[in-house]
Automatic annotation (TrEMBL):
Keywords: Membrane, Transmembrane, Transmembrane helix. It comes from the Bacteria. Residues 1-30 are annotated as: Disordered. This is DUF3105 domain-containing protein. Pfam families: DUF3105. Residues 14-26 have a biased composition (Basic and acidic residues).
Amino acid sequence: MGSAKNTSNASRKARIEEMRRADRARERRGRALTVTVSAVVVAALGVGGFVLFSKASDDDGSTTDSKAWPAAKVNADGEKVWGKLGRTHVSKKVDYPMTPPVGGDHNQVWMNCNGDVYKKELPEVNAVHSLEHGAVWVTYNDKAKPADLKKLAAKVKSTPYSLMSPVKDQKDPVMLTAWAHQRSVTGADDPKVKEFFSTYVQGKQTPEPGAACTNGMAQ
């Protein structure tokens, strides 16, 4: 009886020891696998980091030419109109052939244009995206009269899908831009201001009607 009990205990101990050896073996395999995976991950991160750094270096300061631009047609009252313009989202700068730009390839993030009046110049690639959403962009240079700017700012602030900002290098004191449309005006009281807003704020020219003018970029 005692001998059978001792044999049973010895068998159980042997099974327990075998289980422990199996557990230790699994742990060793697990540690080896962890070390191997970690090494692979570190190597991948190193390569990935290099690729990302190289890409960032390649993109830094570089520009991309906008696609072939159609020639602008000028209406009898002086408004310029362009044909079909590119609409590709790009991460690089774009060399627009006019100032301010009227459309073309642009950044995937738009400038907020819910009646936003900006005091500093805007990134062109972001402002163009606002035009794609149907915004009218009021711009001015240092020759614009303060009284006109005050009235125009009030107009913009009361008009969703519009924005205003300085553009130092534009040729005329005050200019109005929509997607593929642009004109100069004599000032805030020029009747063409009201006409331009009525026609082009979310007008037929809008490539993406109803797209948001909020939750974009702001200064």
